[in-house]
């Protein structure tokens, strides 16, 4: 025991003094041992200097922030995470949390558990209230009250700032929405909805109420026919008809679910076949879908809506869930005004997710949108860059070379080729020459280049505000940070159209992997790449497998699957805690 303790202390002494043996080699029969002190370097005069890590401040722990944190794998950064919540939430399952299909603890993972071991990470539970790009500071308000100095607000310095704060629910400034409606953006929202649903049934069971009042209490209104609204309506329908009516048999014929949508159809971002199927299914299930209905006012007992024909209607309700889109958070609005983007609805970034006008600030997810440059805006610079001999025309080789970089720099070119069924750049040129009545194929001038590319900008589209987009952006940016120093010396991106050299990285490209819409009754609509549409029970099992595999940890994966199994065996939990 005594010898072991001695060697243990000796090892600890070496560790405390940060000495490590780096090289042990044998030269001409003699031993050479070289020592170096960790986390230190030496200048030319032999003076020890400390290498400072670059500080990355990450605002937000949603899809973009968690994905960035999970992928970053470079120990030269010090990451400071700032967020009002100290966990990541798997938001696609929030509708399931509202009805007890999945428990709240099963869809959250502590943010401190996310990230690689070799990256130094710390967390502050606070809300960012202001961003100062000039002084490179963010100002925060603590969620834990005052600190030892009696202050709730403090500032944090950064070298790089990654904004991933997400967005908030958009009320469109409609009177009464903020005060009387439930939202479904956070885990706490889902828990409040679950409690309110149970409360509605308990209140409706009290004696002394007339039938009209009971019907009002059990009338659940969902505003918004997007994926969240449709999934919640489906979950609530199953919860009521499979579980609650067994516990509250007198309420069976009193419950009503109404879905209000301002557009002509629900799930407008899905294939038309899915939209039609869902509307028919909801009709069969007794869910009242009111299309073309725009909410104009909400009070504590009634919701007022207006149709496209100008007719007004008043609907009594017991609970409203508002799911109509997203709005910009106040801190982002203030930051946008500072940098001259005050007239936008989201932060504008370039194709590398860098905020326009800010070299060291990046924005991801719902709080930002990529401002994709158009080919026709740069067409003169593109032609000049490709015309290496300044002849005023491009040879076919020069055209092919510049098109390779154009496809890399402008994603709309590839989208246009795909939409037209073209197999390469030569097809694009042939189409332009055919439209112009020209058969020339050896060289082309700037007008012919314009003719070839004039339609590609029609494919410029804003990315949807989904967790899938945010997660891919977080992964992309983390990989860029990992290769920052390497790519400074050896750029790997496309050529700079309006400058010299190449961009450090390839621009971000979103890869759509498909989307799901759970419809209740163990049925799901799936729309996958390649125009593949599936609706029914088989898609439900695909949904189970995908959502289980997309969990950020094995802990949440096991918990979610166990909740699904519990629901199959015992039903949903209808207790209110």
UniProtKB/TrEMBL annotation:
Keywords, comma-separated and alphabetical: Calcium, FAD, Flavoprotein, Membrane, Metal-binding, Mitochondrion, Mitochondrion inner membrane, NAD, NADP, Oxidoreductase, Peroxisome, Transit peptide
EF-hand domain mapped to chain residues: 374-409
Lipid bilayer topology: Peripheral membrane protein
Subcellular location: Mitochondrion inner membrane; Peroxisome
Domain of life the protein comes from: Eukaryota
Record's catalysed reaction(s): a ubiquinone + NADH + H(+) = a ubiquinol + NAD(+); a quinone + NADH + H(+) = a quinol + NAD(+)
EC number: 1.6.5.9
GO function terms (MF aspect): calcium ion binding; NADH dehydrogenase (quinone) (non-electrogenic) activity
Keyword presence, Protein transport: no
Cofactor: FAD
InterPro entries, per the entry: EF_hand_dom, FAD/NAD-binding_dom, NDH-2, NDH2-like_C
GO cellular component: mitochondrial inner membrane; peroxisome
Pfam families: NDH2_C, Pyr_redox_2
Enzyme class per UniProt: oxidoreductase
Cell membrane in keyword set: no
Annotated family: Belongs to the NADH dehydrogenase family.
PANTHER family: EXTERNAL NADH-UBIQUINONE OXIDOREDUCTASE 1, MITOCHONDRIAL-RELATED (PTHR43706:SF47), NADH DEHYDROGENASE (PTHR43706)
Protein name: NADH:ubiquinone reductase (non-electrogenic)
């Amino acid at each position: 025991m005594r010898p072991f303790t001695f060697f243990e202390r000796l090892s600890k002494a070496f560790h405390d003094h940060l000495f490590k043996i780096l090289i042990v080699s044998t030269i001409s029969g003699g031993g050479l041992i070289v020592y170096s002190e960790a986390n230190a370097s030496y200048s030319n005069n032999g003076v020890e200097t400390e290498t400072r890590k670059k500080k990355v401040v990450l605002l937000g722990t949603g899809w973009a922030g968690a994905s960035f944190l999970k992928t970053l794998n470079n120990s030269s950064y010090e990451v400071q995470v700032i967020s009002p919540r100290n966990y990541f939430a798997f938001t696609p399952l929030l509708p399931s949390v509202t009805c007890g299909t999945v428990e709240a603890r099963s869809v959250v993972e502590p943010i401190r558990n996310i990230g690689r071991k070799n990256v130094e990470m710390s967390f502050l539970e606070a809300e960012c209230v202001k961003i100062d790009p000039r002084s490179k500071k963010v100002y925060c308000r603590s969620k834990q009250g005052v600190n030892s100095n009696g202050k709730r607000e403090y500032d944090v310095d950064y070298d790089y700032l990654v904004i991933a704060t997400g967005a908030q629910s958009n009320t469109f400034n409609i009177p009464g929405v903020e005060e009387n409606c439930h939202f479904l953006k956070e885990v706490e929202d889902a828990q409040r909805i679950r409690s309110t649903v149970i409360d509605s049934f308990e209140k409706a069971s009290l004696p002394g109420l007339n039938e009209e009042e009971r019907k009002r209490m059990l009338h659940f209104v969902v505003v918004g026919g997007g994926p969240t609204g449709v999934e919640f309506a489906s979950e609530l329908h199953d919860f009521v008809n499979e579980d609650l009516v067994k516990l509250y048999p007198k309420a069976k014929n009193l419950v009503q679910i109404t879905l209000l949508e301002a557009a002509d159809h629900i799930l407008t971002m899905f294939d038309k076949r899915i939209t039609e199927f869902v509307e028919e299914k909801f009709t069969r299930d007794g869910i009242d879908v009111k299309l073309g209905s725009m909410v104009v006012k909400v009070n504590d007992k009634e919701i007022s809506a207006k149709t496209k024909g100008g007719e007004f209607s008043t609907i009594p309700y017991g609970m409203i869930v508002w799911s109509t889109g997203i709005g910009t958070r106040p801190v982002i609005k203030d930051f946008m005004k500072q940098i001259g983007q005050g007239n936008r609805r989201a932060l504008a970034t370039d194709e590398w997710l860098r905020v326009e006008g800010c070299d060291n600030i990046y924005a991801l997810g719902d709080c930002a949108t990529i401002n994709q440059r158009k080919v026709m805006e740069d067409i003169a610079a593109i032609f000049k860059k490709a015309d290496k001999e300044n002849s005023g025309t491009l040879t076919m080789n020069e055209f092919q070379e510049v098109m390779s970089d154009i496809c890399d720099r402008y994603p709309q070119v590839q989208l246009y080729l795909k939409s037209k069924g073209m197999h390469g750049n030569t097809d694009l040129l042939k189409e332009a020459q055919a439209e112009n009545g020209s058969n020339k194929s050896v060289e082309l001038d700037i007008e012919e280049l314009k003719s070839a590319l004039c339609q590609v900008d029609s494919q410029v589209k804003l990315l949807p505000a989904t967790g899938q987009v945010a997660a891919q952006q977080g992964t992309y940016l983390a990989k860029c940070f990992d290769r920052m120093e390497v790519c400074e010396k050896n750029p790997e991106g496309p050529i700079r159209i309006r400058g010299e050299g190449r961009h450090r990285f390839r621009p971000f490209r979103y890869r759509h992997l498909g989307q799901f819409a759970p419809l209740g009754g163990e049925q799901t609509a799936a729309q996958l790449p390649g125009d593949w549409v599936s609706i029914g029970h088989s898609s439900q099992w695909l949904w189970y497998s995908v959502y289980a595999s997309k969990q950020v940890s094995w802990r949440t994966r096991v918990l979610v699957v166990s909740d699904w199994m519990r629901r199959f065996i015992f039903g949903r939990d209808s207790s209110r805690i």
